[in-house]
Amino acid sequence: MRTVIKLLLSQGVTGQTYTLSGWVRSVRISKGIAFIVINDGSNLGGIQVVTEQDSPAFREISRISTGCSLRICGSLVTSPSAGQERELRAETITVVGSSDEDYPLQKKRHSFEYLRDIAHLRPRSNTFGAVFRMRSRLAQAIHLFFSDNNFLYVHTPIITASDCEGAGELFRVSTLDAASPPLFNDQPDFSQDFFGRKTGLTVSGQLEGELFALAFSDIYTFGPTFRAENSNTPRHAAEFWMIEPEMAFADLTDDADLAEKFIRYLCRFALEECSEDMAFFDKQIEHGLLERIRKVAEADFVRMEYGEAIERLQKSAASFSYPVEWGLDLQTEHERYITEQIVGGPAFILNYPRDIKAFYMRGNSDGRTVAAMDLLVPKVGEIIGGSQREERLDLLIARMAELGIAREPLWWYLDSRRWGSCPHAGFGLGFERLVMYLTGMENIRDVIPFPRTPRHAEF
Ligand code: 4AD
Ligand code: MG
What we know:
This protein is of the alpha+beta class. The chain has 12 helices and 18 strands.
């Protein structure tokens, strides 16, 4: 039976014999004693394995190098040397899979750019081990949070015929012959396509999520999302994961309250449940990370009207590349200035101009804004986008007409406003942006196992 290294170190009994398996991080021999650090991914530091020249375990030592996989049987002992409390005194060592000096992850500090080129091996490095353990724990924490709050988990479709955000960023899904598709009026004839219509990969599960909220009251989705936006930034990926809660009988204030409670829960969870990895990020990636996350877990989030945000940006002494004017969208530079310089922590921006937001957002009585909210955080900028939805059928139809959005393909969405409509609200949290925020990692390519960005889909 293989014992998980993390459990061995936390629950193992000194003097008892255990078998463990993993990959060699380093091996050195000093004065007839071999020191092997082996890691199975369950913790950051792995465990030190020690064997002496006269032990049968030493026989394999010439075959052991960084990167090879081993099975080791030995007894757990108190470590006489500094650096670890306990170590494993090996009785037998079996080389399961050998390695050699070409192994690309030798024991030195590699750049993140280099590690991106070896995305098939980088999970075996310290930083990416920590990132992907955190990512996994946070995903589990998200399900815990919603389960504790009685939200229904719904799987919305990945292949869809509707472009929720209306930004035209759908990746096409088609089985038509790309070189010579059947034509109708000189255009590809999608009625002959697999689904008998034009389809793509979803940009958001919201519209389908709303239908479930109008049956189960409180729901959430957590799934992959795809956007064919050609933006090469450290914050955008073409494939990312999004968490989208939706609440019936809720308004924008309820929406912001949920988002705040949710983010603070995740901050506390990271501090309490991922303390070893968080300490690593604090030391190696962003000094002061722990302090920053602790503050967020405790303080109330600032809530600021879009109009006020514009005024404060205009009054600031900063010079921006993009114009700041009522009616224009906030760019990343503005968002970061608000959250980093003006507020110094997370900030909700509420009630944006209707002309820069999606068709489904609820119109405010001033006639020019919608009940939208973005949550901005230092370093990352926008981490959450959400809104109260337009639940009034006549106003929704009028807004769609104004924007030239056809009613027919969204007949089912409109039906939800015909029968038993109610005020409802929700938001989308970008999962990778959350992981960036909680780890201090600065590039979205370094918090998703195999990033999809323009011209990159190799692994
Ligand atoms: O603001 P967005 O576009 O909102 C929606 O999609 C709504 N339908 C959500 C809802 O109300 N249910 O996206 C939500 C979040 C953003 O705040 C950002 O964190 C993340 O998704 N996001 C991206 N993350 C990585 N790469 C991209 N290209 C992203 N686009 C959005
Ligand atoms: Mg947004």
